Amino acid sequence: MHEPQQAQVSPGWEDAERAERLATRIPAETGFSAAAVSEACLATADPDGALAGAIRALAARRERYGRPASPAALGPLVLVCAASRFLAQLIAARPRLVDLLGCTRFPHRPARLRAARCTDALALARRLRRHKQVEVLRIALRDLSGASVPEVTRDLSRLAARAFDAAVQFHYRRLCTQHGPPAGRTATGPSGFCVLGMGKLGGEELNFSSDADVIYVYDRDGRTQGQNALDHFAFYARLAESVTASVGSPGATPEGGFVFRVDLDLRPEGRSGPIVNAIRGLELYYEAQGAPWERFALLKARPIAGDLEAGEEALRALQPFVFRKYFDLKAIDEMRTLKARAEKDAARAAGIDLKLGKGGIREIEFFVQALQLLHGGRDSNLRVRGTLKALDRLLYAGLISSRDRDELAEAYVVLRRLEHRVQMVAERQTHAIPEDATERERLARRAGYADAAAMERELAVHRAQVESRFRDLLRVAGGGAPGEEPRAAAAADPEAGLAERAAALAELGFDQPDSSAEELSRLARKRGTPFHDPQPLGPALVTELAAAPDPDQALRHLADLFGALANPRATTELLAQSPRTTRLLVSLFGSSDFLSRQLLRHPELIDQLVLRGAAALVREKADLQTDLSNRLRTLPADDVEGALTEIRRFHNEEVLRVGLHDVAGALDVEEVSRQLSDLADVSVEACFALAAADVERRYGKRDATMVVIALGKLGGRELGYHSDLDLLFVYSAPGEHAANHEYFARVAQRLISHLALPLREGILYRIDTRLRPSGSAGPLVISFEALANYHLREARLWERQALLRARPVAGDHDLFTRAFAQVLEPSLYRPIDRATAAKDLLAMRDRMEREIAAESPGRYHSKLGRGGVVDVEFAVQFLQLVHGGRQPSVRSASTPQALAALLSAGLLAPQDHAPLLRGYRFLRRLESRLRIVRDRSVDRLPETGLELLRLARRMGYSGPKAGEELLGEYERTAAEVRAAFLRVLGAA
Asked: Which residue among 282, 422, 489, 803 is least enclosed by CB atoms within 10 Å?
């Protein structure tokens, strides 16, 4: 879920006279004038606090170093001091941090934890605490500069994990020197000992002042192998005690303080239980004594430090306890008891408690975790850590509506952001909005509100929505339909008039109530629909429609579905029996025009919605091949049309499966592309087999062979919805060349026809062969010899670029291996003049922008425009062509993998790698959302209005200004990508 950046609101000076006096104390040697510092402070949420903190830090730095600070440090310094007295004091104590604040890379790059050279436990504890101070400052600056809540909590959680891991490694080696390593282990590890992060730490949702809830486990019992041998339990108990002290004891150093407060109360038997447990001991405890609340505690458990495989083994052993196989009344009774306890705690919370109060963070987490625990035994897709990810999976499972997901996710982000602002002030473990009026106003401004009243109004809305969902938890947990809504009942009434329907729909939030009322009236006139006769399903459906991302679109598609059915009663009965199927269908209709139209063209795919619980989140290519082969095996060998129909049905079902997971947010953009690419591979392979067999039956067999080579997005396994397939056809050529050419041209033409032929089930793919030698003017198929002659002598730069993604998808893979070794590799990686290549690529990009993208202010093309996807791809391909000959490790067809390889090889600077990778992922996700929402290939962003707002919401933005936030993020991302692109090509 994206959190839009919140601008800080400045109130002016609270005490102008004091501010004037303080400003006169700014040392001249700092490099900043009193006017510059005062002006910078006035732009913050707490100018007085910013000024006091900045002056202390700058004075301390002058005393320590005696030279001016970087001008770039002033803005970050006053921003941090305005938000946190704790961080202001930290900077004054360690004035070197002022220089880090002035470094542009500081907010984006975690500091390295150098603990390996520590000589004793005291040195380690000091190292961990100093590292934590730098990292908390870095993460706070990111937070205050607009990083999302998930990014901030992930950074804090990984900081804790690094601290635990460093402590485990150090103390394990130390104990091994005293007692020898455990049986079957060595002093260099792996240790057999793992730290399991629990709760927020396990879910990567840690706060600025969170405890680190952990459980220590080890793999098996035995004895160590040294002179002072110990039982494994005693060895690992000492290890656990030492790790706890290094991370969590305020007395571990003379200076005091902890890295994170370590809480071990979630271990078996709590404070009275052993500090560490063997895996088998854990298993026996939870089997015999495990309480319902402990299932909640283990839901987010994650190995974070030490021997991670031992931790994974422990979690596998505990899965049957956490996720029960069967949904039973006892489980509901347990949830009812725990829910009542949570309600009692919320009622006791004084003031506005962001975590424990009514409508607070705990209620969101309980709602999500209860549904995961109740249904995760049968649906493994629900077994995810993290609240926002789990909300996405619950949506896909049909357990909550799109509105449920969106409102709970938005409330969670708002509450967690405020929680961070509260805790950042003094690093106190508090979740309460301050009662002091002045402090409350400061908090509101730090969070981007005009004043405390505006903050409290937004909080009241979100908390009321959360409280409503929480009250309804037990009905949702049982998979029940929503209760009847009077306005929904009025809209669904078969006897209602158009005006009455439209008024009810307008109150429910439909944007086009008049046209939607007409759709409902049309449905009411058709026998067998949920709206023809009075029945509970009608109002329930309207309630679900109102909760869809686009209610009007959802109703249009629902009306089209029932309108196309000769006997709609069967579908009505199916929806009445399965509220989860109803919810998922409506969510799909309101989210994706593309997937909806597929369902409307092929209503039989509704069966896939019913079976969604068995639909794998990810399917491997081999699994797809086996499934399709089994389907085709049942058809006669000469039934080509039947086979093409079956391939299309398979393809449509798989696109629907991937798209449903995508719409629900359960897959990242790279996994979506990989699965769509694997599906294309399997489809091309099957169609090629049909084409080759058909030509062989008609014209006989040839000694020569042919390979189908994927280029472009398919070659890089980066395919999107509606993507064309870029294909190249190469054949070996013994015997008469002309006869072979004609023969394989027939195979290629037949393959293209099989893929692009519009049958009732649609086409499979549009095919683009313009990347072949000589482009559209060249022959469709090319012999091995002709390929060699062309690419070793004539190939232009853009053709060499295209070959960087070449890989075989069908036919003779050995032929491709030979062609790559003898032709493509020598052509690709022959010496290149860097300056000339850069000039050619820049000229090519300029033509694309002018002639195709045709951008103007506010009118953007995410693929070909300035700072678009192609900038990232060209930067990567330029470096691959320049360095690939000497550095084979960078020759990846995948853009993200190539970026990682180039960074690892030292051929791409970190300050260029970060914006290129971030930009690529953002732009590809935007492209995916554009194409899945619309039923066509599109790369141009909507400029304004409702369409832009809906796109922004599907990208995870929220609030009335979501569209503006999306455009702002796009502009920043595109500018960063273009700057990095120009630096890579040496044109900056």
From this structure: 489
